[in-house]
Amino acid sequence: MGVVVRSALWGAAIGTLLMGALTTIIDLAVPSEKPSSFLVTIVAILMISVIFGGLPGTVVGTGIGFLRRSVQRPRQQRPIPLPHPQRPYDMWSDLVERCAESTRRVAAAVQTVPQSPAKDWLRRISEQLTKELDDVRGIAQLGRALGAVDRQHPVYQRLLRATHDFHQFENEVGRVALQMFDHPELDEARTHLEVLEKQLPQLST
């Protein structure tokens, strides 16, 4: 028998008994002008007890049964999320990302320079650095293909020098950009831009 049915029966029984006891007490306490027979009194008390006690008790008991069943129902455990697979450490990606960060900072620095023919020249130098970044990725891919894990490997050392060159070039671009704020004219910036162009990392040569 289910929890709801048992609770409904218990509610009906308790409600009937309570209402029956209350009706009996009232019947005994209040004298009647026309005393009824004992059988009629019993039937009347039963009917009142069932209607006004049993039926409400059944409703209340049913509600309690549903509540008890929901509490007793085992909670469904949430599935444990699977851990994301850890990507193995790649010493090549670290150096490539450092070069990429320098490239992004150079491009951002160029955007701050006042608009002028000198800025257009500086932008072309920045675009050339972006092309050199593709060579950086190619060197890293070569290191992975060779399975090199030694930091003294020639390929790793080549990429390490490229990282240093990119960082140095980033500093030079910042210096030239600062000078171009005061002298944005092409004639004034020409010498600085020519020197900067010669310092551009040349990984393909």
Brief overview, please?
The chain has about 200 residues and is mainly α.
Record the SSE blueprint.
Blueprint: H1 3-29, H2 38-72, H3 91-111, H4 117-146, H5 154-182, H6 186-199
Helix pairs in contact: 1-2, 3-4, 3-5, 4-5, 4-6, 5-6
Protein described:
- The protein is mostly helical.
- Helix content is 76%, strand content 0%.
- It has 6 helices and no strands.
- The chain is rod-shaped, with a radius of gyration of 45 Å.
- The model has no long low-confidence stretch (mean pLDDT 79).
* Sequence of secondary-structure elements: HHHHHH
Count all strands and give the number.
Answer: 0
Largest sheet: none
Q: Please give the count of helices.
A: 6
Shape: rod-shaped
Helicity, as a percent range: over 70%
Binned strand content: under 5%
Runs with pLDDT <50, length 5+?
Answer: none
